[in-house]
Amino acid sequence: KKKEFVSTTPYRLRKRLSAPDPYLESESEYSASCSEEEDEEDQKEVSTVSTGRKTPAETKAASVPPPRNTLPKKVKEDKMSNLVEEYFEAHSSSKVLTSDRTLQKLQKRRLNQQTLHDLLKKAPLAYAAEIKELNQQHESLFSKWMLQLHLGFNIVLYGLGSKRDLLEKFRTSVLEDSVHLVVNGYFPSITVRSILNSITEEVLDHIGTFRSPLDQLEFIIKRFKEDSSLELYVLIHNLDSQMLRGERSQQILAQLSSLPSIYLIASVDHINAPLMWDQAKLSLYNWLWYETTTFSPYVEETSYENSLLLQQSGSLALSSLTHVLRSLTPNARGIFRILAQYQLENKDNPSYPGLSFQDFYQQCREAFLVNSDLTLRAQLIEFKDHKLIRTKRGADGVEYLLIPVDDNTLTDFLEKEDEDV
């Protein structure tokens, strides 16, 4: 009986009974699941040998286990390969299923700008009482803002909702007797040059042109340092707008705000607005941040955006054109008028390249609008900044000037100018 028991016991089991493997012991100490699986495998091996009565060679071959961790690793690799194949199969198809129900396909009548504005104005504002109470809380900070501005800080407002009415309330209630400048940063043609022109012409009463905005900035800084009685409050709606968020514009505005007698209060709406400023600009601005959530709709800020609900009739371009030119000098408006009239006279010419600079200068000189070509070029730079004109060189190397506005809008603009005159 003893010999039969030894001969029918598997080689692996005999080795474990005679000399336990230290590796297996250590593994069983830390992992109960591994030891239970091995015990189950041993029981299967014993039952197979006792019932099947295999030959010693077959018994030895069946009792030799596979290499450790080979099967789980192979299964894991198979699963990973299947996942990779499924991923590329799912993304290999170029056909993308999307809905074709867009706003453009609505069979609705398009509105004009004024009609849409009137309809939106009639719509009731949700939570009007709560919003009014919230704005009253913000308005109670006006005296605190004035104190902090005079202490050398500048104020930036952020939060959900339009802050235009809040800044306008601050201007009318606190700054009525002070010299102040309002900058609508959301306007599509606003530039830092136009801001500097407003300061030099309207605040400092300077008549003349500058070679570059940096020269103009140096002139402003010099005048404010020489005259200690000068004080200026600058209110900027949407300092982070598309036209003012550039590196050059932010650097000039930061240097202006660093002057002791210039007080800046601005609003920002973009979530990444602080990324405009590095450490040097932040030190110049010296901001105090105020969270002024108003929940007010961005009516005025979005009035210059294209909408699918509006007719594309050129009314937006006309209002922008009129607004920009009203902020310029009479000579500048006369120069632009000559260019517009000449372009309308040649509107039937399909190969019209534009008005050459020399012919344009000659007409402006005859109208006593400029006295040199340098004066005209300085004025053209301002037109380019406002995107009112476009220049290109022809095949003969001559510089041509063109107004990038359709003829109907240009005609309406000249008729409106004649009515105002």
Automatic annotation (TrEMBL):
<protein>
    <recommendedName>
        <fullName>Origin recognition complex subunit 2</fullName>
    </recommendedName>
</protein>
<feature type="region of interest" description="Disordered">
    <location>
        <begin position="1"/>
        <end position="73"/>
    </location>
</feature>
<comment type="subunit">
    <text>Component of the origin recognition complex (ORC).</text>
</comment>
<feature type="compositionally biased region" description="Polar residues">
    <location>
        <begin position="1"/>
        <end position="10"/>
    </location>
</feature>
<comment type="function">
    <text>Component of the origin recognition complex (ORC) that binds origins of replication. DNA-binding is ATP-dependent. ORC is required to assemble the pre-replication complex necessary to initiate DNA replication.</text>
</comment>
<dbReference type="InterPro" id="IPR056773">
    <property type="entry name" value="WHD_ORC2"/>
</dbReference>
<comment type="similarity">
    <text>Belongs to the ORC2 family.</text>
</comment>
<dbReference type="GO" id="GO:0003688">
    <property type="term" value="F:DNA replication origin binding"/>
</dbReference>
<dbReference type="Pfam" id="PF04084">
    <property type="entry name" value="RecA-like_ORC2"/>
</dbReference>
<keyword id="KW-0539">Nucleus</keyword>
<dbReference type="InterPro" id="IPR056772">
    <property type="entry name" value="RecA-like_ORC2"/>
</dbReference>
<dbReference type="GO" id="GO:0006260">
    <property type="term" value="P:DNA replication"/>
</dbReference>
<dbReference type="GO" id="GO:0005664">
    <property type="term" value="C:nuclear origin of replication recognition complex"/>
</dbReference>
<dbReference type="InterPro" id="IPR007220">
    <property type="entry name" value="ORC2"/>
</dbReference>
<feature type="domain" description="Origin recognition complex subunit 2 winged-helix">
    <location>
        <begin position="348"/>
        <end position="407"/>
    </location>
</feature>
<feature type="domain" description="Origin recognition complex subunit 2 RecA-like">
    <location>
        <begin position="130"/>
        <end position="291"/>
    </location>
</feature>
<dbReference type="Pfam" id="PF24882">
    <property type="entry name" value="WHD_ORC2"/>
</dbReference>
<keyword id="KW-0235">DNA replication</keyword>
